[in-house]
Specification:
414 residues; alpha/beta; four-stranded mixed beta sheet; 11 strands
């Protein structure tokens, strides 16, 4: 008998969330292959991870139903789908919408509050009441569908940095904040994460929002014996940076400057056009270089909202480096991709690996998943090659009576 696994998405009506659900439905109908899914590689086949088509979706959002035109726009970004298959996907999304609950905008900043439907949010709630409501949503979703496990994934827009150092928010301090109703000390992301972890769900923070992964939440995950992973999915410019930067270190070439410029046009780009929200994202993207190189070259990361790009994003990077005899040289690259199509398969990977960890009684930070994140919690290794080897070794450790592979197998599972 198949296990029924639930997935609750924070920001369930967003572009990435919809792409994630459409992609899962397309895999189920055999309209596409699991291209882009790391867990579709041979190295993970023996883990018997939950098939994407067995996942039951729901979540929270601060907006009402998305207009059909937006769904068509998302589908046009992904690729051509036959009319009969499009009808199947739209009907399935309509059924999923019954599992999408009212979210919260608590202290999320003006850029996010401006997106909210006033009929959905409940600003009069206390912090404890909001957490209780979110936990009831989890319970109702589980009972409605007879689910064995639930994974909660934060795919919401980037929140502004907290006014206090997020690293000081221990579980004791977080409990104090909740009991004293200190709204200004936390953000909506903290409440979703707290509710999910306290309810025993595996939890993924795919956003750069520091409020959604404070130390107190990691402590709570250890106490509740659930896996937790984050922060900030690595899908584009930073992915390339984490692969390229080790090359300079391996060859003892000195990077003097690394300038990055990003353009994107979706809802994420709109929210990031607000300086307070952008600062959190830039902080996440900018720490990779010094961690890999061992020193901090001149570097800047710029992010601009370009509405006409839609879900397409473009990044241009200029690297100025020095070699033998003080010879100055440069490298430039341009990365152009579909933001949600790059991220969605990675979210599926993290959901499946999170459920696998829970079934195997693995708790707390899942450090072996560092390769999926720009700012992996609890990990100082930012070299993509070494991060990925950590993941391969983790998978190999679950292969009974077999040696760990010396090379990384990359053949896809059909």
């Amino acid at each position: 008998m198949k296990k029924k696994i639930g997935v609750l998405i924070i920001g369930a009506r967003g572009h990435l969330s919809t792409t994630l659900m459409v992609g899962t439905l397309a895999i189920k109908k055999r309209l596409c292959q699991p291209t882009g899914m790391v867990t579709a590689l041979d190295a993970f086949s023996h883990l018997n991870l939950t098939p994407p088509e067995d996942l039951v979706f729901g979540g929270w959002d601060i907006r009402g139903n998305i207009a059909p035109g937006i769904i068509h726009q998302i589908l046009s970004d992904i690729g051509p789908i036959a009319r009969r298959d499009l009808d199947y996907i739209e009907n399935a999304l309509d059924l999923i919408s019954a599992n999408i609950f009212a979210g919260t905008t608590l202290n999320s900043g003006q850029a996010i509050s401006d997106l909210a439907d006033p009929n959905i949010t409940a600003p009069s709630e206390s912090i404890r009441e909001t957490i209780g409501r979110l936990k009831r949503d989890i319970s109702n979703f589980q009972q409605r569908h007879g689910l064995e496990h639930i994974a909660v994934v934060n795919l919401s827009s980037t929140e502004p940095l907290l006014s206090v150092d997020s690293s000081t928010i221990t579980l004791a301090r977080l409990t104090e904040i909740i009991e004293n109703n200190e709204f200004e000390a936390i953000r909506a992301g903290t409440l979703y994460a707290y509710a999910a972890i306290d309810a025993g769900c595996s939890y993924v923070n795919f956003t750069p929002s520091a409020s959604a992964m404070v130390p107190g939440l990691i402590e709570l995950a250890e106490n509740r014996k659930v896996p937790i992973m984050g922060n900030d999915g690595k899908t584009g410019e930073t992915l390339v940076k984490s692969v390229l930067a080790p090359m300079f270190a391996y060859r003892n070439l000195s990077v003097m400057s690394w300038q990055g410029y990003n353009m994107l046009g979706n809802m994420d780009g709109r929210v990031l056009s607000n300086p307070s929200n952008k600062s959190c994202k830039v902080t996440s993207k900018d720490k990779v270089l010094s961690k890999i190189l061992g020193y901090k070259p001149h570097s800047q990361v710029a992010i601009d909202f370009v509405p006409s790009l839609g879900d397409r994003k473009t990044a241009w990077d200029f690297i100025h480096f020095e070699g033998f005899l003080n010879t100055k040289m440069s490298l430039q690259f341009t990365w152009q991709g579909c933001d949600s199509a790059l991220a969605a398969p990675l979210v599926l990977d993290l959901i499946r690996l999170g459920i696998f960890a829970k079934e195997n009684h693995e708790t707390g930070l899942m450090k072996h998943l560092a390769s999926f994140f720009k700012s992996p919690e609890g990990v100082e290794q930012y070299d993509m090659h070494k991060q990925f080897q950590m993941l391969i070794e983790y998978a190999a450790s679950h292969r009974a009576s077999e040696q760990k592979p010396n090379i990384i197998p990359l053949k896809k599972v059909n």
